[in-house]
Amino acid sequence: xxxxxxxxxxxxxxxxxxxxxxxxxxxxxxxxxxxxxxxxxxxxxxxxxxxxxxxxxxxxxxxxxxxxxxxxxxxxxxxxxxxxxxxxxxxxxxxxxxxxxxxxxxxxxxxxxxxxxxxxxxxxxxxxxxxxxxxxxxxxxxxxxxxxxxxxxxxxxxxxxxxxxxxxxxxxxxxxxxxxxxxxxxxxxxxxxxxxxxxxxxxxxxxxxxxxxxxxxxxxxxxxxxxxxxxxxxxxxxxxxxxxxxxxxxxxxxxxxxxxxxxxxxxxxxxxxxxxxxxxxxxxxxxxxxxxxxxxxxxxxxxxxxxxxxxxxxxxxxxxxxxxxxxxxxxxxxxxxxxxxxxxxxxxxxxxxxxxxxxxxxxxxxxxxxxxxxxxxxxxxxxxxxxxxxxxxxxxxxxxxxxxxxxxxxxxxxxxxxxxxxxxxxxxxxxxxxxxxxxxxxxxxxxxxxxxxxxxxxxxxxxxxxxxxxxxxxxxxxxxxxxxxxxxxxxxxxxxxxxxxxxxxxxxxxxxxxxxxxxxxxxxxxxxxxxxxxxxxxxxxxxxxxxxxxxxxxxxxxxxxxxxxxxxxxxxxxxxxxxxxxxxxxxxxxxxxxxxxxxxxxxxxxxxxxxxxxxxxxxxxxxxxxxxxxxxxxxxxxxxxxxxxxxxxxxxxxxxxxxxxxxxxxxxxxxxxxxxxxxxxxxxxxxxxxxxxxxxxxxxxxxxxxxxxxxxxxxxxxxxxxxxxxxxxxxxxxxxxxxxxxxxxxxxxxxxxxxxxxxxxxxxxxxxxxxxxxxxxxxx
Length: 780
Prior knowledge:
This is histidine kinase. This protein is an alpha+beta fold. The chain folds into 5 domains: 52-154, Beta-Lactamase; 186-281, Beta-Lactamase; 287-409, Beta-Lactamase, CATH 3.30.450; 416-534, 2-Layer Sandwich (Beta-Lactamase); 624-778, Heat Shock Protein 90 (2-Layer Sandwich). The protein has 23 helices and 29 strands. The strands form 7 sheets. A 5-stranded antiparallel sheet has the order 2-1-5-4-3. The chain has a 5-stranded antiparallel sheet with strand order 7-6-10-9-8, with helices on both faces. Strand 3 (118-122) and strand 4 (131-137) form a beta hairpin.
């Protein structure tokens, strides 16, 4: 037995222990390496699964153009086989289009040479899949020196979403542009404020309202549309809208274009935290409201002055207005009406005061009147009140709701209608009792007639009851007239009276010889009154008078001729008497005694007066149309000559004869002898009517167109009867104003001569005040 030393044993143990330790370490290392390898395999499988399910697939393009890719990417590209180089990315079926393949090849080449990354979009033939290619230089881990890694990402859903978003963006941009254009073109100021209520955007109307340069200038200067941005101003309104997230509106005054306007500001909160706003000019609306208010006040004031009762109910059927006649008509006090009683209460109050018709079913009657509020049109009815009062009731629904009631007292009108009916009966009886034939036409038809009208024309009652038209009536009248065509006159007279409102008349003759005066008088409402007066008796009297007048004129002509002839016959003996008297006065038969001389002088004076009278009678009986001399006559000479001829007559009565000839007397065209006779006759008439020691004035003047001769005296004047007959020819001999008997031919002769010259003569006299005769002669 080998003995081992303790030292050897210790060494051996140490070695064994070391071997155990090393084996254990190696075992642990192997186990750890195995675990790491398994972890690497698991990680590889996991990465492969991730790559296989990744939305991006890689393609490695080596420096020599060879390609390494996956089956999935080949499917994306529509390739049946895995491509080996770049040229195989294009195929007859599937693959990339030629232009995209060439572009991709160029991009890969650039990346290989310059390590330039690129990004492009491709789409396989006949495929809707959109791919994004990202090319980068291959990292060293890929172990493809000089190669490029192409990452293909499936962006189909993203592209669709992007397209949708682009379309939505375009739509929103178009809508925004349209909205911006609309806001810009809006005629009302519009604006947008940020969360701090500062202006960020305004439109052109806003710029124009605040008189800014442009929108940028207004925003930068913060020009507010309404003055006062403090409490109660536009910013306060916007702040309330922002804080409460509810639209706000307020009416505020503003100065626009130098004029004070009332604006209604609207502030609308936006989800962005800002506030949009716009302003509407309500100045015209406010004025219209004021005008409507004033019109309502004026209307109510007018209604209060009407005689008809008026009551107005609001949409809630409360009484809001009554006028004085209504309150008086229905005995309602102001205190009770002040509570705005409802319609039903007002009706019941009318019933309590016996101001309603007597009805059996009052609730049903009241319900029917309550429907007036919803009636599509006005309702009108008549209430027969207790006591004989009649009310006309008009219920007018109002456009804004409510009801307007008008109560008109027609009691007097009913009485007038009754009286009118009685008057109609009286009128008919009166027309029938008239001696004239009367008919009334309206609208071209016979409406009324009396018994005389029917009997004159011998019409049947049935014919007249048919109210015939004027042409039909005149057609039946024509055969009854002596001249049938004169029937048209009747129709013309009626039409003139009805349409032209002119009164005209005429006459007709019946076949039986009767004469009628006809007339048409316009009546109200375009009617015409036709009357016929039987003038047969008058016509017979006129015929008799006409015959008598002709006989008298013939007798007058015979008398005038006789007087003229007698005047000529009287001249011969007067001439002989005058001649023998002058011989006796001249002493041819011896000297006469003093009394004989006086007798001869009296004979000469009487012959002179009788000769003048014969001359006057001859002048008066001569034809008035006999030719007269026409020459320029100086009225001053004529007046003086006429006055000189009358001087002896004036001296014999100690009458003061004064002559006044104004410088305006001038010339007239006429017969000097006749005009001188006019002056003499007027002076003889004045001297003959003036007592002794009286005064007679001859005054002559004129104007540019006429000359005037005035003879006045201060005698006793003339009576009205004497004045009326002063110019009558061959009037009965009267006592002159001097008391002498005379034929009075002076004034008639003067009148005849003056009128022959186209002039006028007039006499003015009052008893006890004298007489004045005025003659006016035209210059030509």
